[in-house]
């Protein structure tokens, strides 16, 4: 309970930050994408895991405020890095199902217009849990994103329900293969077969594939041979604060 109250203050006190993890185009090794990830640096507890505090934020009714904050931060980075590279740099932002379903006004499309950032620079990462209970509001919101040009990625694919009907029913641009498959791929024939099958299926449906949790050269090689479009993981880089990300991946210092 106390931690919920502290989370309420965390934004104001500047304890929340954004870490960016590069997403690498496997065939070319180019980096023109990243995922934005929340970080909470607590004065006593140090780094609190988002897996722990995001549910707290949802419970406390803070997720829209925090979600909108990270969205704006990420949009500013996408704009700065696109300018520096002279090409569209895309950032993926996780949107909590609770924020997605909340009655509060969704201001993301409007905000992009305000700051004059092309919507193509933003990908919204959603999970299957959202689509499982997809109401007409969810469908409308996804269509609103689509019309504006925001892309949609389905996160953690392969765990959970992985119902193929979602892929038929919703207009999704990217599948993110869950890191559990990638990490077992070298030793476990089944995980490798599942990953390869997801890639083939996704491509035939016109989706691009991002493999998560790539940690070894061998995993990168297997994924590249299987035609996987993108990789993300500690092999390339852990999530980094904006200045360090910019130094390494935008200015190549
Ligand atoms: O960065 P890390 O691997 O610790 O993230 C753990 C989980 O927390 C991720 O699976 C991610 O989906 C979730 N997460 C990270 N940042 C955000 C965010 O800004 N919003 C939401 N809703 N979830 C996030
Ligand atoms: O949104 P999602 O829950 O998929 O967030 C990805 C999470 O996975 C982040 O919290 C990130 O810190 C973590 N992560 C990123 N790359 C790797 C990796 O190569 N190995 C492992 N174990 N975790 C990773
Ligand atoms: Mn994600
Ligand atoms: Na994921």
UniProtKB/TrEMBL annotation:
UniProt domain EAL: residue ranges: 1-253
Q: What is this protein called?
A: PAS domain S-box protein
Q: Which domain of life is it from?
A: Bacteria
Of the intact sequence, the residues represented are 828 to 1080 of 1087
